[in-house]
Specification:
By secondary structure, this protein is of the alpha+beta class. It has nine helices and ten strands. Strand 7 and strand 8 form a beta hairpin. It is elongated and about 60 Å long.
């Protein structure tokens, strides 16, 4: 809610009223497989673009938008959280949420490192260090919107280019109950292709953030780098076509690897390994 001292101009009220009216006209599918929060987020994204919603005007309060859409406030808040992570909106405490027309206005595409290496003429290979099934806990449950205790498929891998270690990946997957991946499959093909071909899962969007830290002893050994050497870590969460959280991953890149991202996906370049 806006603070009492915040005065909203008439033009802003008109923009808010128009958005609420359009939201109220949107029929949400409640019996299908697509999550309500995903439908709400995509509806807001589309209307912000169609209405050229003024970037300096706060969006209507969450309560009002939830009421217009006919959903609960937690559902609307979940949609807003995803749009904020994707650069469509941003929130300012005490004032409200604002549209970012100049930000990223679509989900981040996902590309396969296995396919990228093949396309660049390199020879990819994979060594699986660990495969196990475990119960989902925080923060995975929050970021993928999973019930605590949900069964996850956990795999730790090292990816190679022409026999040289390139990245180390810790992946947690919320797979369909009847889906299973083997060590042999994971060492032969790319994960995203296996998810599609074997599990019937297609990842279409997500978020990624990058940080820097020191390598663990295990990472240093498997990546062939010095102990405590600096590494770049990409933390990724990805969702399927129905808006369900599927992948939670930490991708560890040693020094000398450049991560290049655009709206279509992610690719790798390494001056010493892929030149």
């Amino acid at each position: 809610m806006l603070p009492r001292c915040y005065c909203v101009p008439v033009s802003a009220l008109n923009a808010q009223a128009e958005l609420l009216a359009r939201l109220a006209d949107v029929p949400l599918t409640r019996s299908g497989a697509t999550a309500l929060h995903w439908q709400c987020g995509e509806t807001l994204r589309q209307l912000i673009q169609e209405l050229h919603y003024p970037p300096g005007v706060p969006l209507p309060p969450e309560n009002d938008m939830a009421k217009a859409l006919g959903v609960s406030r937690p559902t609307l808040r979940q949609a807003m959280k995803r749009l904020s992570a994707e650069g469509v909106v941003h929130s300012q405490r005490g004032v409200g949420a604002f549209a970012l027309r100049t930000g990223i206005t679509r989900g981040v595409g996902l590309s396969s490192l296995h396919r990228d290496l093949l396309s660049s003429g390199r020879s990819p290979s994979t060594k699986v260090l660990l495969i196990e099934t475990l119960a989902a806990q925080s923060p995975i449950t929050e970021e993928l919107n999973l019930e605590p205790g949900r069964k996850l498929f956990h795999v730790k891998r090292v990816r190679y280019a022409d026999g040289q270690p390139l990245v180390m990946i810790y992946t947690y997957l919320a797979l369909p109950d009847d889906a299973h991946l083997t060590r042999e499959q994971l060492e032969k093909d790319g994960l995203y292709n296996l998810l599609h071909q074997v599990c019937g899962v297609e990842l279409v969007g997500g978020q990624q953030r990058v940080s820097v830290r020191q390598a663990t002893a295990s990472e240093a050994t498997h990546l062939g780098i010095e102990a405590a050497a600096p590494v770049m870590v990409a933390h990724r969460v990805a969702f399927d076509t129905q808006g369900r959280g599927v992948e939670y991953a930490h991708i560890v890149y040693p020094e000398g690897v450049e991560l290049q991202s655009d709206l279509r996906g992610t690719s790798l370049r390494a001056g010493t390994l892929l030149a």
